[in-house]
Write the C-alpha cells for this entry.
Amino acid sequence: MDRAVLGWAVAGGIAYALLPWYALEDGIFGFGWLSGYPTDRAGAPALVQALLHGRLALLPVAVFLLAPLAVRGVRGAGARPALLLTVGAGGTAWIAVQGFAVGGQPGIGVGGLVVFAALLMLFCVGMAAKGAFNGDRFVSGGIGTVVTLVVVFVFFPVSCVLVGAVEDSSGAFAPSEFWAKLSAREVWGLDCLSSSAGCGVAWNTLILGVLVGASTTALGLAFALIVTRTGFRAKKALRLLTVLPIITPPFVIGLAVILLFGRAGAFTTFMEQAFGVVPSRWIYGLPGVWLAQVLAFTPIAFLVLIGVVEGISPSMEEAAQTLRADRWRTFTTVSLPLMRPGLANAFLLGFIESLADFGNPLVLGGNYHVLSISIFFAVVGAQHDRGRAAVLSIVLLVFTLGAFYAQRRWLGRRSYATVTGKGDAGLHPPLPASVRRLVYATALPWAVFTAVIYVMILFGGFVETWGRDHRFSLRHYAAAFAVDVTEFGLHWKGAAWNSLWTTIEIAAISAPLTAAVGLLTAYLIVRQRFRGKEAFEFGTMLSFAIPGTVIGISYILAFNTPPIELTGTGIILVICFVFRNMPVGVRAGIAAMSQIDRSLDEASLTLGARSLTTIRRVILPLLRPAIVAALVFSFVRAMTAISAVIFLVSANYDMATSYIVGRVENGDYGLAIAYCSVLIGFMVLVVLLIQFVVGRRRLGRRAPTQVSLEGIPA
Amino acid sequence: MRRKSSFPKAMLLATCALTTLVLVPAAARGEGNLTLYCSPQIEWCQLVIAEFTKATGIKVAMTRKSSGETFAQIKAEASNPKGDVWWGGTGDPHLQAAEEGLTLEYRSPRLGELQAWATNQAKASNYRTVGVYAGALGFGYNTELVAKKKLPEPKCWKDLIRPDLKGEVQVADPNSSGTSYTMLATMVQLLGEAEAFEYLKKLHRNVNQYTKSGSSPIKAAAQGETTVGIVFMHDAVTMAVRGAPIKVVAPCEGTGYEVGSMSIIKGARNLESAKRFYDWALTAAAQSLGAKAEAYQVPSNKGAATPPQAPKLGEIKLIDYDFAKYGTSAERKRLLEKWGKEVKSLPQ
C-alpha cells in the first residue's frame, strides 16, 4: 500500500473522528469547546455529529475516507487510480453539496477543512497514478490545490454577483429586468453629444480610460527616454518619483488636486489675485479625475516602457545609422516601431487601472459618473439595487476582460522585443534634438508637478486646517498616533493605532501567502506541460481583471453564510488580498522563471531529486527577484487597497484605508493626510527591508522593473 | 544556511500566523458582548460605546458605516446576522429594514420618556425601530463667498433658485443619499408634487454637483468650493463650530426633518446585551453625549440636555413629515425614478 494514500486517508480519518467539524464561535484556540468535547453539539467531530446529533449527511464522508484503505484488495493496474479518483471526487463533491443543501449547519471548521483537503489530495494522487502530469504527485497536488482555491475564492463569489443580475429585488428569476437595466439610458445614453447633459456611465468610463491610457503612455515614454537616452542628471530622483504613487493610499492625490485647483485652491487663488481669473469648478469632473489618475498611473507606464526602451537592441539603431539614416529617421523608423508593443502594453495597463480606480472619481468626479462608483452606490446608496450593481459589474467586467485579452496578446509580443537585447555591446544613439526638447518639455514640468503634489500632502498633515488655516500644528499626528507611557507600559492612545496594527498584521500575513501561491502557480505554468494549461493560466489571472468593488460585494454575498462563513473575520481580508494580488506573483514568477534555464532543474531531476526538492534547492534560490517582487507588491497593495476592503472590514478588523475614508467623509482631511503620510513612510521602510533581507546582492534595481510589468488594479 | 532556510521559515511563520487568525475568535461572543453597527460620525460612536461599557461592563465591537452601507450589509447578512444593534443614521433605511423584516420588534420600557416624533417612528414601524435624535433639513452658506460676490443672503428655499446662484448650490444625489431624499420628500410635502418638481427643475440649473454623500455639500461650502450646501442643519452647525465661515439657515417656508433611529437586528446573537444597549441609549444621560462629540442633533429623550449650539426645533417651522408614507420602498422608488427622469436628465 502506497504511503501517500495511507497518509492522506489516515489524516482525513483522524480529522473526521476527532477534530471539530464545524467552525467554532470563539475559534479552535479559544479552547472553550474542549469542556463539552466530544459530545457537545458545537465542538463535536463529524463522527459524533452524525451519530448523536442526527447530522446523517456527514456519514457518507466516512465511506469515502475508508474506501482507499481497502485498496490493497483491489487487483488490476487501472482499478486503483480509478478508485482513488472516485473517492476523491465523490468525497469532495459530497461535502460541498451537503454543505449547501442541508440547512441549519454552522460554517465548516478545522475538521471539515482537513477532511476536504485529504480527499482532494487522494484525488490528485489518483490523477498522478493514472499517468496525468507525468505521474508527478507534487505537480498533480499543486494543480489540484490551485484550481480548488481559485474556484472557491474567485469563481464562486463572482458567480454569486452575476446571478444577482438576473434577479429582481425579491430574488426571483427575472431576465427581463436584466435587459432593462443593461440597456438603461444612464448606462449607454449619448446625451452629451447633443446637449450639456451627461452621457451614460459606460461611455464616461470608456472615454476616461482611453484618455488616461494615452496620457500615461505618452508621459511614461517621455520619462523612459529621458532616463535611458539622455544625459539627464537627476535620473535617480525621477525613479523615486515613479515609486511614490504606487505606495500612496487612495484619495490622497485627489485631495491634493482639489487643494491646488479647487475653487478655493492655492493655484486658483493665486491666478485670481495675479490675473483676475474668476475661480470656477472646472476641476470637478473629467478634468480632475483625469489629472489625478494620470498622476497616479504614469509611473506604471514608465516602469513598463523603461524595460522596453532599454531592451531594444542598439545594433539595429547602429545599423540604421551606418546606412546613413539621420537621428530623426533612426528614431522614427527603427526605435519607435520597436517600442510599439511596449506602448500598447502601457496603454492597456493605464486603461485597466483607470477603469478599476475608485478613490479619485469618488473625490473628484463631480457629476461625471463612472462605473466603479456607480456600482458602489447602487449597493450602498438609497436605492439598494443590487441587481443594477450586478449588471454594471458585468459591463465593467466585459470592458476589463476585453482590455485584458488585448493586453495579453501584446504581452506575448513584448517579450520577443526585449529578450534579444542581451549580449549587445552597442550604444543607443542619442535622441534627435527635436524629440529631446519635446521629451524634456513634457516630462520635467510633470515631474515638478508630482513633487509639488507630494510636498502638499506632507505639508497638509502639519497644519491646523488644510486649505484654510496654515499654522504649524502637530494635533493631527497627536490625535492619530499619540502614545502614553503608563506604569503598565506603553498605552497606544491615538485613534489610528488599532487600524494600523490590523493593517500591518493582515498585510504581513497575506504577502508571503500571495508570494507562495503565485510562485507555485508560476512554476506549474512555466515548468509543466499539461492539458488545459491555457485555461488554468487564464483562471489564475482572472481576479486581476475584476474590479475591487465587485470582489468586495461578491465576497460578502458568498462568504457570509455556511458552508463557508468568513465575514467579520480577519481571514476574509487575507483571502481577498491573496487572490486579488496573486496574479502579480504569478507574472513575476513567470518572468523570472523563464530566465532560468530548464536544464538546471532537469539536471536536478536526473540526479534523483523530486519536484519538491528541485523547487526548494534549485529554483527558489534563483527566484529571489520574483520573491521580492511578489512580497513587496502584495504587501503594498494590501496596505493601500480600498474598493474591496470597504465591504469586508468589520468591528475587530478595521483597515487603515477604510478608516481614512471615514475621516475624509467626515471632512477631517488633516488626520487623513497625516495617516497617509505615516503609511507612505512605513511602506518605504518595508520595501527597503524586504529588498535588503531577501536578496539585495543579486537583485539591485531589477525587482521594481519586473513587478511593474503587471498593472495593479485598485 | 540562513539563505537556504529563510523562505520556508517565512512561509511557516505566515502559516502559523494565519492559523491563529482563523482560529482565534473574531469576536468572542457570549453574555457580555455586543456587536454594534454605528452610522453617525465615529467620535460619537466611540464615545457612546465607551460610556456604555463603563455603565454595564458589556464589551462592544463596533463598525462605523453610513446608514446606506449598514442597511446594505444587514440585508446581505440577513440569513446569518452578524450584528446586534444598529444605532443612529437617518430614519428611512431603518424603516425600510423594518418593512423588510430585517429588524426585531421591541418595546423599550423607556418609550414613555421620548418625544412624540421618536415614538411616532416606532409606531410607524410596528416598534421595530425608534427615534434617538432628530435633525431639521436646511442649508448653510459660505459667508465669505456671499460677501465677495455681493449676493443677498439666502433665507428661504425659494432664494436658492435665484438666477444669481447659478452653479453655486450643492446637494447630494437622492439616489445615493438619505439626506437628499429627505429634501425631495420634504419639497413634495411642502409644495405638492407637481410644484415640487417644478422647483427642483429650477434648482437643478443652480446645482453645480449632486454629491454622493449627504453631508459633502456643507464640507465643500466650508472649503469654499461651493457657496450653498443643502444639508441637515446639525451638520452645518458642526462646520460653523469648527470655525468655518458657514451660516446655518432654517428655510423660512418650513422644512422637513430626519429622525435618527435605532433598531435591533433580527437574529441578534447577543439579544440580551442588545436590549440593554437599546434601553440605555434611550436614557437622558446617554443622549446628552452628542455635543461632546460635535454632534448637534436634538436628542429624543425629553430629559436629555440639548446642546446649546443645536438648531432649536421649537423655533424652526417644521412640516408634519409623513415618515410612514415616504419611508416605504414603493413611494421612494417612484419619487426617485420621477426625479431621475424629469430633473436629473435635464441639461444644466
